[in-house]
Write a structure and sequence with these properties.
Pfam families: PsbP. With 270 residues, the protein is an alpha+beta fold. Helix content is 21%, strand content 29%. The protein is globular.
């Protein structure tokens, strides 16, 4: 087999150790001016290969930490931006089978299997939703919303119902509630409606099994505003429920009140 030698002009030149940072014209690879000047050989020329660079574990950890911190920041920024979503307008939902209608934000999504007759939720603020509850036709015979008493009496019943639903078996859980307002109105359909607003706060211990009181730090889990509209038709009691965090209510109050005002109960034709 013929042995091929590589011309010195094609080999990389190593700088002198005495002055590693200085280079001369000889430090660069010299290429022939024309391809015809290249030597021919029956075998290919093998140039020295550069060893792959090894990435240390510390470098990998730093890179992973940078990616993770960027992700967390993006999530926090997204969550903060969720509370500043622009108004998208309202869309009407009509249930002619059960006999009611109302308006809701266009970008809210319907959630099935939530236990209510209908349930919509804000895709960004998950604590914000709207639903409709209807009394059982076999166990109710309402003639008017006044069957619940005065608006204030109806408001107390609504608040009691909320607290019953939010009862918790966890140790150290405490609820604070207040009846904010009650009112009545006659809508353009000639029917009487009651409107109720309540606030409920939930508190819990961070370590409910701790023996010493100083180890059981109480923290607030959530603070919500609940708005209900009550109406009667078809011998049934209808309740529109709106739930929103208190910190969001001030920003969206006008739209939420439009939703409350839009609720109607309708006669079902058999």
């Amino acid at each position: 087999m013929m042995k091929t030698t590589t011309p010195e002009s094609l080999l990389p030149h190593t700088p002198s150790p005495a002055n590693p940072t200085s280079f001369s014209s000889a430090d660069f690879i010299a290429f022939p001016r024309s391809l015809s000047a290249l030597p021919t050989a029956p075998n290919s020329v093998s140039l020295p290969r550069t060893a792959p660079t090894k990435v240390s574990a510390a470098t990998r950890r730093k890179s992973l930490a940078l990616i993770l911190s960027s992700y967390i920041c993006s999530q926090d920024c997204f969550r903060d931006a969720a509370f500043a979503q622009p108004t998208v307008g309202l869309r009407e939902y009509i249930d002619s089978f059960d006999g009611y209608s109302f308006k809701y934000p266009r970008n809210w999504i319907q959630v099935r299997g939530a236990g209510a007759d209908i349930f919509f939720r804000d895709p960004f603020v998950l604590d914000e939703n709207i639903s409709v509850e209807i009394s059982s036709p076999s166990s109710s015979n309402y003639k008017s919303v006044t069957d619940l008493g005065t608006p204030e009496e109806a408001g107390k019943k609504v608040l009691k119902q909320y607290l019953t639903e939010f009862m918790s078996t966890r140790l150290g859980v405490r609820r604070e509630s207040s009846l904010l307002s009650t009112s009545s109105r006659i809508a353009d359909d000639g029917k009487l409606y009651y409107q109720v607003e309540v606030n409920i706060k939930s508190y819990a211990n961070n370590n409910e099994l701790a023996v010493m009181p100083q180890d059981r730090v109480v923290r607030k889990e959530w603070d919500r505003r609940y708005l209900s509209v009550l109406g009667v038709e078809n011998n049934q009691l209808y309740e529109l429920r709106l739930q929103t965090p208190e910190k969001v209510f001030a920003e969206e109050e006008n739209e939420l009140r439009q939703i409350m005002e839009s609720f109607r109960v309708n006669k079902v034709v058999a």
